[in-house]
Amino acid sequence: MQCEHWDRGACRSCRYLDVPYGEQVAAKSETAAEALALVPTAAGVHWLSPRRSAPTAFRTSAKLVVGGTRRRPTLGILGPDRRGVDLLGCPIQHPAINRATPALKRFIRSLDLIPYDVPTKNGELKYILLTVGADDALMCRFVLRTRDRVTDIRLALPDLVALVPNLALVTANIHPAHEALIEGPDEIILSKRRMLPIRAGDLDLALGPGSFIQTNAAVAGDLYRQAADWAALPLASGDAPQTLWDLYCGIGGFALHAANAGIPRVTGVEVSERAIASAIRSASQAGLSRTAARFIAADATAWAAQQDPATAPDVLIVNPPRRGIGDALAQWVNEHAGERVIYSSCNPTSLARDLEAMPAYRCVEARLFDMFPHTDHVEVAVLLRRTPS
Asked: Cα separation of 280 and 206, whole Å?
């Protein structure tokens, strides 16, 4: 892949850009296999073929640092001096994002928005967060230090839509703190539309501002499909699974694909109320009743501990953050979960640690999903089956 920003040394985010893509995938596969090789219950696991990504234009969301000046803004990353570096035309970004960025710079200039300067802690506009939805529709979130310019952005929305015609959802996120976190707690929706339709795998999902979505929509869709295929396999009795829990469910991608695969009752649990609102909307759009697809805003570990073990589902899916599910939930799963567990992990180290804490389950199959080409980020899904006692 050719990248002018890499060639001139302006960006090293894709640290393995000069490594052939096939070699990258092989190295990630080795990393994942080495992590599971340390787990006794993963001995003999069958590895499916890795799901490779397109090496370019795969990122369907972008967190663009706003730098420079009001007359010459930059959209990209922070450089070593903590000031903005322009990354127009980044080859790993979706074309809809690259088409929008020059227009967004014009909008910043026209509104005289002052980019935030990290070293001096002065300025107003910190980030522009872009997400590509179905039919290249865009969600655009302006991360501002104060509410001072929100009305100006709202009044200028017709000009913004003229510059970026595929804009569907616009918000202002207020983030007054001088810290590394990208967004703040307050979200002001400026457009009529409140959610962005996202095509993920076989389904149309609804994405609200602040809800997590994988940055590689194509690979994420196949991850959902793989999990749904595993979830729908017959149980040891020969019966079809009837119930499924999706812990750390986000906007419901795993649970809704499982429902689409024929599991009659799915439950998703996620701490983010915004994500749960998105999941409920998606279930409604799919024609699923509240009985068929139930979504709950709660801490996954605490919620599971409160359930009657007799109600444990036939299939459990967990998709935790990098830290993994932790000792408490791993112990609950080991003692109370049903016949089948599907674990989707973005950190092979924490995955291996959690699997060691669940010795009642044997790792049957595993697959690498390359969400982030040119980096060392590894995403792995594993199918676990309870060992007969």
From this structure: 9
Domain, as residue range, for 151? 61-192
Do the domain assignments include residue 285? yes
Residue 161 is assigned to a structural domain of this protein: yes
Residues 152 and 226 occupy one common structural domain: no
Report yes or no: 96 and 104 within 8 Å, Cβ to Cβ: no
Residue in the structure block whose two tokens are 């839509």? 161
Contact 4, 11 (CB under 8 A): no
Residue 164's contacts (CB-CB under 8 Å, 6 or more residues apart) are: 99, 100, 103, 104, 138, 140
Do residue 156 and residue 222 come from a single domain?
Answer: no
The verdict on 161 and 235 lying in the same domain is: no
Q: Provide CB contacts within 8 A for 282, sequence distance 6+.
A: 203, 204, 205, 206, 251, 252, 256
Specify if 269 maps to a domain.
yes
Identify whether 346 is a catalytic site residue: yes
Q: Which of 3, 11, 346, 363 is catalytic?
A: 346
Residue 70, token pair as written in the block: 């009001």
Strand partners, 64: 128
The answer to whether residues 72 and 39 belong to one domain is: no
Query: Do residues 221 and 356 share a domain?
Result: yes
pLDDT in tens, the chain (389 residues): 899 999 999 999 999 999 999 999 999 999 999 999 999 999 999 999 999 999 999 999 999 999 999 999 999 999 999 999 999 999 999 999 999 999 999 999 999 999 999 999 999 999 999 999 999 999 999 999 999 999 999 999 999 999 999 999 999 999 999 888 899 999 999 999 999 999 999 999 999 998 988 999 999 999 999 999 999 999 999 999 999 999 999 999 999 999 999 999 999 999 999 999 999 999 999 999 999 999 999 999 999 999 999 999 999 999 999 999 999 999 999 999 999 999 999 999 999 999 999 999 999 999 999 999 999 999 999 999 999 87
Provide the number of structural domains found in the chain. 2
Claim to verify: residue 376 and residue 270 sit in the same structural domain: yes
Q: The domain spanning residue 124 has which CATH number?
A: 2.40.50.1070
Residue 205 belongs to a domain: no
For residue 9, the cross-strand partners are: none
Q: Are residues 10 and 89 in the same domain?
A: no
Angle between helices 273-285 and 253-260 (to 10 degrees): 20
φ, ψ (nearest 5 deg) of residue 273: -65, -35
